[in-house]
């Protein structure tokens, strides 16, 4: 929560409604600014960013009022009063006026430039001791990799400690935005961008993609959790071992949900951008280059790590690789889960493929033709 001194809007309301008759409104108005004008200022940089914003804002309001006010005044004052009124003498040149309206804007622009540049440099320059987290954006999910190799789909950070984000993209340009921290930076394929923040208050804040990146752009919405002091390490320890504490098929199900697989692969046989996970394991499929493949452990593993190696016919080659985002153990959990939702999952592999090859490949071949 912002304190009144930090929040210009709340501050303004507090002054404006300080008088006794209006004071009753204060509890109501105190709730407004968090969502009404600006999000909570939850990072150490937020105040500075807002200050620059409000300076520009109020300068704009000031000039808007002067210009529109004078315009309205002149329209009324110098209107044509009766038909046939001739226009009077117009001023042609005034050195004083021209120097004034040149010098004042230059000074204002310079002040804005210096303020903006200072806060921009501050946001772009992480402190040396910052805790580093790698960020990967891909259609349509964020991955956060911590120094110990643990990967999460939501961002977790300690409170009161500078955190540096080193970001890149697997495919198109995404943009990471944490409104409460006033952090917004493009995430670009083939290059690393960085930004940093220091969270002030434990809590959960929205984190989203703010660069249109395709159909699932609006799905790139997650949260950043700021852990209380000392709790971050505890969380990390638990989270890093979470999947190992569950039955493998359940761990696999949680992984396909959390890693975003289900955005393209349904779990109930429904059509999607990619083939459904139901009845995937053990069946035989035609690939786009005319081969037929059995969707066994090795094929699934290959499809996760090198999705372009053999694409099932009828689907676009659009899947990003998950190499480096899933551990071997996690891939095994996912395979176990796929077995659990396939009628061939529990069968002897040899028999299953022999039986299925004919009927399946016929069916696929017909579809493809
Ligand atoms: Cu990623 Cu929009």
Identify low-pLDDT runs. 1-5, 347-369
Q: Which shape, going by the Cα principal axes?
A: elongated
Which structural category do the helix and sheet elements fall into? alpha+beta
Biggest sheet strand line-up = 3-2-1-5-8
Task: Tell me the total number of β-strands.
Answer: 12
Characterize the biggest β-sheet: 5 strands, mixed
DSSP helix fraction: 40-55%
Q: N- to C-terminal separation?
A: 61 Å
Order of helices and strands: HHHHHEEEEEEEEEEHHEEHHH
Roughly what is the average pLDDT, rounded to an integer?
A: 83
Q: Could you characterize the architecture of this molecule?
A:
Helices cover 40% and strands 17% of the residues. Mean pLDDT is 83; it is low at 1-5 and 347-369. Helix 1 (8-16) packs antiparallel against helix 3 (26-36) and helix 4 runs antiparallel to helix 5. It is an alpha+beta fold. The chain has 10 helices and 12 strands. The strands form 3 sheets. A 5-stranded mixed beta sheet has the order 3-2-1-5-8, with no helix packed on it. It has helices at residues 8-16, 20-23, 26-36, 46-77, 95-124, 231-240, 248-258, 297-305, 328-340, 349-368; strands spanning 131-138, 141-145, 151-152, 155-158, 162-169, 174-178, 183-187, 193-198, 203-209, 221-227, 284-286, 292-294. The chain binds dinuclear copper ion. Dinuclear copper ion is lined by residues 137, 140, 174, 209, 211-213, 217, 220. Residues 137, 140, 174, 209, 211-213, 217, 220 line the site of dinuclear copper ion.
């Amino acid at each position: 929560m912002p304190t009144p001194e930090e929040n210009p809007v709340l501050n303004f309301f507090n002054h404006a409604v300080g008088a006794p008759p209006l004071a009753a409104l204060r509890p109501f108005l105190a709730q407004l600014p968090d969502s009404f004008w600006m999000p909570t200022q939850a990072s150490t940089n937020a105040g500075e960013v807002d200050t620059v914003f409000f300076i520009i804002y109020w300068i704009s309001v000031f000039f808007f009022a002067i210009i529109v006010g004078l315009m309205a005044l002149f329209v009324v004052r110098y209107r044509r009063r009766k038909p046939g009124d001739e226009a009077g003498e117009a001023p042609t040149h005034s050195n004083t006026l021209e120097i004034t309206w040149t010098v004042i804007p230059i000074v204002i622009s310079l002040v804005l430039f210096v303020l903006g540049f200072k806060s921009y440099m501050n946001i772009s320059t992480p402190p040396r001791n910052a805790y580093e987290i790698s960020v990967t954006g891909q259609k349509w999910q964020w991955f956060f990799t911590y120094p110990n190799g643990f990967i999460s789909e939501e961002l977790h950070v300690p409170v009161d400690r500078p955190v540096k984000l080193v970001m890149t993209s697997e495919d198109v340009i995404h943009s990471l935005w944490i409104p409460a921290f006033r952090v917004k930076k493009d995430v670009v394929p083939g290059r690393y961008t960085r930004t940093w923040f220091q969270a002030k208050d434990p809590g959960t804040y929205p984190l989203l993609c703010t660069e249109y990146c395709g159909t699932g752009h609006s799905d790139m919405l997650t949260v950043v959790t700021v852990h209380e002091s000392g709790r971050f390490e505890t969380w990390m320890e638990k989270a890093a071992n979470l999947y190992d504490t569950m039955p493998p098929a359940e761990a696999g199900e949680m992984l396909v949900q959390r890693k975003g697989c289900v955005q393209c692969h349904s779990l109930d046989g429904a059509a999607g951008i990619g083939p459904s996970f139901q009845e995937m394991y053990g069946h035989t499929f035609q690939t786009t280059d005319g081969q037929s493949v059995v969707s066994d452990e090795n094929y699934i593993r290959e499809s996760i790590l090198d999705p372009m190696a053999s694409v099932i016919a009828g689907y676009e080659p659009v899947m990003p690789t998950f190499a480096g985002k899933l551990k071997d153990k996690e891939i095994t959990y996912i395979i176990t889960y796929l077995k659990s939702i396939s009628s061939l999952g529990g069968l002897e592999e040899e028999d299953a493929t022999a039986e299925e090859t004919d009927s399946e490949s016929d069916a696929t071949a017909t579809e493809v033709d």
